[in-house]
Structure formats: structure tokens, C-alpha cells
UniProtKB/TrEMBL annotation:
Family matches, as InterPro entries: Methyltransf_11, SAM-dependent_MTases_sf, Thiol_S-MT
Native organism: Calocera viscosa (strain TUFC12733)
Any one GO MF annotation of this record: S-adenosylmethionine-dependent methyltransferase activity
Taxonomy, superkingdom: Eukaryota
Domain Methyltransferase type stretches: 88-195
The name this protein goes by in its record: Methyltransferase type 11 domain-containing protein
Listed SUPFAM superfamilies: S-adenosyl-L-methionine-dependent methyltransferases (SSF53335)
Length: 266
């Protein structure tokens, strides 16, 4: 956001409702044409709305993902080097998180990614990060976060994961309030950690209202992503033995993309 616009929003709550508009318009202008082309090539997509959303998401993420990654880098540089042992990343996307992890601390990396259009970029990121799928060092699973039993089956049983990574994905997970504790309790080993960086419901009442106003249209365009998920509250309700929660530096609480960051140990 331009600095002047930022300054105005700091003092005037009402115009904050418009703050997601520039990104929203840009995403549509970037994602629309390739999505229409995909629809032209395969008109049956019209009857598979979820798939159509995924096509849009992978196209717009190819353009936006690197910028969003850059914006989150100061947080990820601190958070993601804690990944160790068996790591499972929820909604790995194009694999942006991989470059922040320390390869030699990781014995096996599982990427949960239900959108197969994301896989080619994800595979490139795996290679760049020094993981070989052929050698079984990394596995891509086509499941959503809610498919907990299928994930457990792939892992060979419950409580096999040392580090669970959740970066900008719980916003898109249906029933995340229930799915998050189930994932942590059934996947993590005792002493395992969740590394989380998510945009959440803002603590500022007017911003919460604006997040709720935007969510119906935002979630249609961005593959189910909701701006109004109270993820920070839900993660804090899980019984952790240790937790470190911090804020994204410089981010105002009124931001409609207010982020929750933390390292939570079971
Ligand atoms: C905004 S992108 C973030 C990608 C990656 N975590 C990053 O930070 O670069 C959200 C990702 O979550 C995936 N996703 C959407 N719904 C999901 C679900 N129910 N379970 C797991 N992943 C999901 C999308 O396909 C997409 O790759």
C-alpha cells in the first residue's frame, strides 16, 4: 500500500474498508484471462466451481505469491528455521516456505497441497531446497487439511510429525476451528511444534466488521480464503506445553490482514 494511503488509514477508520480493494482488483486482472482461457479449453469447469477457483488461485498466486512471500519474509526468517525432523506443511502452494528451512535439520518433508496446478512450482522449490522425491525425502500429498485420516494413513500412523507448518492457509480450510486441533493432536508427536503465520480476525471492532463484509466476495474469488477467521483464538485454545506468540513488526492491529504468528509446542 502507498505510504500516504497508509498514513490516512492510520487515523481514519472508515476508508479502511477499501484497503483490500487494490489487491483485489489486481488479482482479478491477473487471474481472469488465464482462467477464462482454461474455461474455453475445458467448458466442463463451469460445473466444477471448486476446480475453477483452484485454476484462478494458481494463476494469481504465480504473480502475487512472490510479493506476498517477500512481505512475510521478516517473520518466516525467524519462524521457519525451527522446522526439524519429520515436517508436514499444510497448503504448501508453490513451496515458498522451503527456502527458510534448514535442510540438514529435516529428515522428511510432506507437502499437503490439494491444488495439483501448484505442483510444478512446488516441485521446483523442492529441488532448489535440496529434497528428492525419488529418494523419498519429500512427498506431496493431494489432500486438504480436513482429510486427517487419509494423512494419518500416508504417514503410517498417528503422531509421526515433529513440525507442522501453517503459513497463510488456515484462512482457506473449511471448519478450521475443528480441523486445527485435530491435525495437531493426531499428527504431532509429543514435544512436536506447530509453526504458524496466518492472517486472522483483527482485534479492532471496525476492522472485524470490514473483514466480515469482504469475506463473502473474497472467499469466492480466492479459493475459499476468509478474512474473518479467528485463528489466533482457536490455536490458543489447544493445550500446549509451551508457546511463543509474536506480532508482525510494523503491522497495525486495524489491518484487514492482521497476522498471528507463533511457535506452539505440544
Ligand atoms: C495463499 S496460498 C499459501 C501457500 C503457501 N503456504 C505459502 O505461504 O506460500 C494457500 C494454499 O493453501 C492451499 N489450500 C486451499 N485449501 C486448502 C485445504 N483445505 N487444505 C490444505 N491446503 C489448502 C491452496 O491450494 C494454496 O496452495
Amino acid at each position: 500500500m502507498p505510504p500516504l494511503f497508509d498514513k490516512i488509514l492510520q487515523y481514519l477508520p472508515l476508508p479502511r474498508v477499501l484497503s483490500p480493494l487494490p489487491d483485489f482488483m489486481l488479482a482479478i486482472s491477473v487471474g481472469l484471462l488465464p482462467t477464462l482461457y482454461a474455461l474455453w479449453s475445458d467448458p466442463s469447469l463451469l460445473f466444477h466451481f471448486k476446480r475453477l477457483q483452484q485454476v484462478f488461485q494458481s494463476n494469481f498466486w504465480g504473480f502475487f505469491g512472490p510479493e506476498v512471500d517477500k512481505g512475510g519474509a521478516p517473520v518466516k526468517i525467524v519462524l521457519l528455521p525451527y522446522a526439524e525432523g519429520v515436517v508436514l506443511e499444510i497448503g504448501a502452494g508453490h513451496g515458498h516456505s522451503l527456502k527458510y528451512m534448514k535442510r540438514d535439520k529435516i529428515t522428511k518433508y510432506y507437502a499437503l497441497e490439494p491444488n495439483t496446478d501448484m505442483w510444478p512450482e512446488l516441485r521446483k522449490a523442492l529441488v532448489d531446497a535440496g529434497f528428492s522425491e525419488e529418494k523419498g525425502e519429500a512427498v506431496i500429498l493431494p489432500y486438504g487439511a480436513g482429510d486427517v485420516s487419509k494423512i494419518v494413513e500416508q504417514l503410517g500412523g498417528e503422531n509421526q510429525v515433529d513440525t507442522l507448518i501453517s503459513v497463510l492457509v488456515l484462512c482457506s480450510v473449511p471448519d478450521a476451528k475443528d480441523v486445527l486441533p485435530e491435525l495437531c493432536q493426531r499428527l504431532l508427536k509429543k514435544g512436536g511444534s506447530l509453526l504458524m503465520y496466518e492472517h486472522c480476525l483483527s482485534p479492532v471492532p471496525s476492522s472485524r466488521l470490514y473483514q466480515r463484509l469482504w469475506t463473502p466476495i473474497w472467499s469466492i474469488v480466492f479459493d475459499g480464503c476468509r478474512l474473518d477467521k479467528d485463528t489466533m483464538t482457536w490455536v490458543n485454545q489447544i493445550k500446549w506445553s509451551d508457546k511463543h506468540v509474536w506480532r508482525k513488526e510494523g503491522e497495525p492491529e486495524w489491518s484487514l490482514f492482521f497476522h498471528g504468528v507463533g511457535r506452539f509446542t505440544l
